[in-house]
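Notebook entry, structure prediction.
Reason for the run: the old model in the group folder had no record of what sequence produced it. Starting over properly, with the input documented here first.
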Amino acid sequence: MISKEIYEIHASICQCLANPKRLEIIHTLRDRELSATDIAEKIGISGANASQHLAIMRNKGILKSRREGVSIYYSLANPKVITACDMMREVLFEYLNEKQLLTKKVKF
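New structure, fully documented this time:
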């Protein structure tokens, strides 16, 4: 039986991922490592805001970082994060398609 602590940790990670900008960061880091500055530019947020998101994700073990000179580079800590996000996106699209089909069947 899974302990309650595991559920708490799982919920904490899911809560961390329940942010559109953080999902965008994950997608941006899908295939490559990038600096914090590059991430901020690619997703259109300030460096300070990007740093906050990146720190949260690093603390949850979703990202790993390394310093090179004055720059900090980020990458995914585990490639399975992409798999999980892709699966959830599939669930979302299936849900939206089903909802659209139901909407078309309803006559006003």
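Summary: The first strand starts at residue 34 and ends at 35.
The old model has been moved to the deprecated folder.
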